[in-house]
Q: What sequence folds into this?
């Protein structure tokens, strides 16, 4: 069915009267041609990405090669290996290349929005490289002994004494493990100041433990610090990272979802009756940076659909309430896709 004014074609299931839509060009940001557009297509993966696709899908996880680098055969169960987009495969491969460095591994900082898959990718990379890791969250005013260590009281022969207990960072540094620090831009400055030594380069790395009386603890050559951070914009309650600390990292900016979201939807809801319209709501909302729905919220909304929630309610509780001033536009976009109502016109056309 076509609009008599602009000629735009509409599916009968969406609009009973195609002339009710706004074809003047003044429609809200969420009323776009996404209704008649095909679903978003991923770019053609590179050779490295194709290797990783085959690697993730392979029943035996056979070791393959990308150029001169070999992908490590992981110990994690193949059913738990994540699905990655072509973009995510490239970022994962970068982590693997850094992690396979036979010299001291360079610190890495992944910067990106919440729910984009940063942490999941780091955990997968550690598993694929068969590396043990310690994971921690940074937050203001935290007790830094959690990272560096403390003396704790112990009882021996009826007497109370003190015994040194390593913190998570100290254990990882001494044993050659991964220290995975989430939310690096929320860390207190007294903790950041003590991270300069462990994140220095090559033979310059050192760890000071003044509480223990050790001013030069040896750092294992396999120690690897990986951190994540949200950008210091877009409403995140974070501080800008200390410039001296920031300069010690390889910085990988995550600008797209790293997950293959379409394949994830296949697993969660398959050919659900509302699947296509739900995905079009997501694409429509992503046309504006302030309402860019992240992967975590897509998964939560899809799970609600799978549980039998009304699609409007699923989007409201899993997505819309989290986007502040864009709650109403998101719900209007959902109403347009699920119920065929043109948001700007529904009142005037009665």
A:
């Amino acid at each position: 069915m076509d609009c008599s004014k602009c000629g735009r074609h509409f599916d009968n299931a969406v609009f009973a009267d195609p002339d009710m839509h706004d074809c003047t060009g003044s429609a809200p940001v969420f009323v776009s041609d996404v209704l008649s557009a095909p679903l978003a297509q991923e770019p053609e993966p590179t050779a490295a990405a194709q290797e990783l696709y085959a690697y993730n899908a392979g029943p035996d996880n056979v070791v393959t090669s990308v150029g001169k680098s070999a992908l490590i055969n992981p110990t994690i169960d193949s059913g738990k290996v994540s699905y990655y987009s072509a973009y995510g495969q490239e970022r994962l491969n970068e982590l693997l290349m850094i992690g396979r460095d036979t010299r001291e591994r360079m610190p890495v900082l992944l910067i990106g929005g919440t729910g984009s898959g940063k942490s999941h990718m780091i955990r997968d990379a550690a598993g694929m490289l068969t590396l043990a890791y310690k994971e921690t969250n940074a937050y203001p005013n935290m007790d830094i002994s959690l990272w560096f260590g403390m003396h704790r009281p112990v009882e021996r022969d009826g007497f109370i004494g003190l015994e040194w207990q390593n913190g998570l960072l100290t254990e990882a540094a001494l044993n050659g493990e991964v220290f995975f620090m989430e939310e690096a831009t929320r860390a207190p400055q007294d903790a950041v100041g003590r991270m300069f030594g462990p994140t220095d380069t090559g033979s310059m790395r050192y760890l000071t433990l003044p509480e223990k009386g050790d001013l030069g603890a040896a750092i294992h050559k396999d120690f690897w610090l990986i951190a994540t951070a949200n950008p210091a914009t877009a409403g995140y309650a974070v501080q800008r990272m200390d410039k001296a600390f920031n300069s010690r990292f390889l910085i990988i900016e995550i600008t797209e979802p790293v997950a293959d979201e379409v394949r994830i939807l296949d697993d969660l809801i398959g050919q659900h009756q509302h699947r296509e319209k739900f995905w079009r709501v997501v694409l429509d909302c992503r046309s504006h940076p302030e309402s860019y729905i992240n992967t975590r919220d897509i998964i939560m909304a899809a799970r609600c659909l799978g549980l039998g929630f009304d699609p409007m309610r699923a989007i409201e509780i899993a997505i819309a309430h989290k986007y502040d001033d864009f709650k109403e536009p998101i719900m209007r976009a959902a109403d347009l896709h699920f119920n065929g109502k043109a948001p700007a016109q529904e009142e005037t056309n009665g």
